[in-house]
Structures are given as C-alpha cells and as structure tokens.
UniProtKB/TrEMBL annotation:
Keywords (A to Z) from UniProt: Pyridoxal phosphate
Boundaries of every Alanine racemase N-terminal domain copy: 29-248
One GO molecular-function entry: pyridoxal phosphate binding
Entry annotated with the keyword Hydrolase: no
Function text: Pyridoxal 5'-phosphate (PLP)-binding protein, which may be involved in intracellular homeostatic regulation of pyridoxal 5'-phosphate (PLP), the active form of vitamin B6.
Transmembrane portions of the chain: none
Alphabetized PANTHER family for the sequence: PROLINE SYNTHETASE CO-TRANSCRIBED BACTERIAL HOMOLOG PROTEIN (PTHR10146), PYRIDOXAL PHOSPHATE HOMEOSTASIS PROTEIN (PTHR10146:SF14)
Family matches, as CDD domains: PLPDE_III_YBL036c_euk
InterPro entries with a match to the protein in the record: Ala_racemase_N, PLP-binding_barrel, PyrdxlP_homeostasis
Cofactor: pyridoxal 5'-phosphate
UniProt name for this protein: Pyridoxal phosphate homeostasis protein
The keyword Nuclease is annotated on this UniProt entry: no
Length: 255
C-alpha cells in the first residue's frame, strides 16, 4: 500500500512529466505551423489506454479535446470525467457499436466513418438518444495506403455516397467535418519530405471540395509523422505517445 504522502508525490511527478511533454509537443507543433505560414492546426491529445487521471491533469491545464480508440473505454472515461470534454472517437468503428457511442452526450467527433451504413446508424442513434445535443462532427476515413488491413474507404463511389449523405437533410444529427487517414507505418517512418499517403488524402479533399463545394478539414499526422502532415496541409494532428509516453497493452491498461 502506498502511503497518502507518496501517492500525492507520485501524482505530482506525473503531473510535471505530463505537462512538460505536452508543452514540448505543443511548442513543436506551433513552430512547424508557423514555419509554413499557417495558424489553423489543432493538436488532439490521444489518451487511449492511459488512465483518466492523466486526462484530468491535462483538463486542469486547460485542455478540452481528447481522442479515444475503444468504445467501452471512451464510455467509461466519459462517465467519470468532466462533461465539457469534447471527445473524439478515432478508433475502428463497428456498425453494432454506433449506438453505444451515440449515448455519450459529450461525444464531439467521430473521425473514422468508413461506410454509409455506419453514418446512418450513428445519425439514427443520436437522433433517438440525444436529439438536442450537438451534431456529431464526422470525418470520412480514407484508406490512403491501400493496405488490406487498414480500415477506411478508397472507392470513389462509396466515398461520394457517404459525403452526399452527410451533407443531405437526412443527416439531422451528424455533420461532415472532413477526412481522416492513418497511412502506412513504412511511409510514416521513411525520411521523405512528402508523405505519399497524406498527398493522397489531399487529392481526395480536392476532388470532394470540387464536386460538393465543401471545404473539408483534414485529420492526419501522429507522433511519427506530424511534421509532414502540417507541411502538407492538415487541420489537426493526433498525438498520443509523444505526450503520454508509451502505452500499456490493452490487457494491462486500466482506467
Ligand atoms: C493511437 C492513434 C494515434 C496516436 O498515435 P501516436 O503514434 O501514439 O501518436 C493517432 N491516431 C490514431 C487513429 C490512433 O489510433
């Protein structure tokens, strides 16, 4: 058993560590953003598999948006953490989990919509469960690396269908925010100036903006490749490891 004093001391240590890595990442992101003459890139801390106490520390530091990957983990954290957190779901989404996700009243964004069916399910569930809440901001996830194991759409017809639905009057409780991609590990760890997968996402943005008169935002860039993502025009980078440190396995993680 830890004594009361050492628990406090541990928490103070964690606070110092977490805030300093967050501030370092924020400064790096800001300098890249400035370096390419922009001012409109947001930093989403990805807190998956990290304890709610970490999120609370960053919340107390003024942060309000966090990214999570697992539906049940997001639900559990949302229950115990402040209600003005803007949760972003960024994990693989199953159709039968759309309803559970829609229950979280302060769910702000779902960044991984990769089928018309899921878009419809999420909209329908939100309309039923929280008709007065904010419309959930949705990104269409694109598989830019054409890897079979990656989720996301790459077929033009399907992509246009989802976009069309999100822009239609039928989408009463969700709205289109933009496009999201992860990209391949190999590409993100190569030293090239330009990331091929991010370039593909930019091409999709152009195609969709031209066809639907939208101005879609892009969500791309993680700890290993956020510099390229900023250079290539992202609106948001999603960063976990560089802020929170390495993650425990799912079996070892506790909320
Ligand atoms: C885990 C995850 C991140 C954060 O990745 P890091 O490499 O830890 O920064 C970003 N986006 C998605 C979709 C993720 O699953």
């Amino acid at each position: 058993m830890l004594s009361w004093i050492s628990k406090r001391a541990m928490s103070e240590l964690r606070k110092n560590e977490l805030l300093s890595s967050y501030e370092a990442v924020k400064a790096t992101v800001d300098s890249y953003v400035k370096g390419c003459g922009r001012n409109d890139v947001s930093l989403l801390p990805v807190s998956k598999l990290k304890p709610a106490s970490d999120i609370q520390l960053l919340y107390d530091h003024g942060l309000r948006s966090f990214g999570e990957n697992y539906v049940q983990e997001l639900i559990s954290k949302a229950e115990i953490l402040p209600k003005d957190i803007r949760w972003h779901f960024i994990g693989g989404l199953q159709t039968n989990k759309c309803k559970d996700l829609a229950k979280v009243e302060n769910l702000y964004a779902v960044e991984t919509i990769d089928s018309l069916k899921k878009a419809k399910k999420l909209n329908e569930a939100r309309a039923k469960l929280h008709p007065q809440a904010n419309k959930i901001l949705c990104n269409v996830q694109i598989n830019t690396s054409e890897e079979a194991q990656k989720s996301g759409l790459s077929d033009e017809k399907e992509i246009f269908e989802v976009v069309q639905f999100m822009l239609s009057d039928e989408a009463t409780n969700i709205e289109l925010g933009g496009l999201m991609t992860i990209g391949s590990w190999d590409v993100s760890h190569s030293e090239t100036e330009e990331n091929h997968d991010f370039a593909v996402l930019c091409q999709w943005k152009k195609k969709i903006d031209d066809k639907f008169s939208t101005d879609l935002k892009l969500s791309m860039g993680m700890s290993s490749d956020f510099k390229q993502a900023i250079n290539q025009g992202t609106s948001q980078v999603r960063i976990g490891t560089d802020i929170f440190g390495t993650r425990p396995s799912r079996a070892e993680a506790s909320i």
